Amino acid sequence: MALAITSNQTREFVLSRERNKPQEKATVFIVRPITTDDEVWMTDYAAKTGGVPLGQAMHRLVPSCVVGWRNFQREDGSEVECVLENNRLSDESYRAIARLDRIELTYDILNEGSVGPDVVGKSASQRATSGANSKPAAPAARKTKG
After folding, report:
1. Would you tell me which of 93, 107, 108, 124 could form a disulfide with 89, CB atoms 3.0–4.6 Å apart?
2. Which CA distances in Å does 101 have to 4, 26, 136?
3. What are the tens digits of pLDDT across the range 24-71?
4. CA-CA distance, 130 to 136, in Å (whole number)?
5. Across the strands, what pairs with 70?
6. Whether this model's pTM surpasses 0.90
7. Where do the structural domains in the chain lie, given as residue ranges?
8. Across-strand partners of 79?
9. Quick check: 137 and 15 in contact, CB under 8 A?
10. HSE-up of 119 (CA within 13 Å, CB side)?
């Protein structure tokens, strides 16, 4: 049976390297499904070019789909504030996420969305495990600018 998704439904995602940490210490990203605009962009881009480069997908999807986090800290132990501008991660918040973590988030976002399996050069089976540790999230408190 197919399950319906709504655009405001969020889930929690823990990076693979954080999954062995106690739950209260692991960084948790709050992620929502791909927007219709993002899905149309990816589908059109893939149809024209045969695929979507990972960097393009990452730069578009992470700011659009990550709407909050918990336990995300700098080296000095201070919390990184999640700032949304126009319902998207601010550039500063986006840049706070390490590139390899943005890549893992991108694959998770694609796995949970309804984009075709080879859009970013990996098969669905290669991406299938990236969403295995996602679970529905409680509504996250968000700070919004703009």
Report:
1. 93
2. 28, 13, 20
3. 899 999 999 888 888 898 889 888 888 888 888 899 999 999 999 999
4. 15
5. 28
6. no
7. 11-145
8. 73
9. no
10. 25
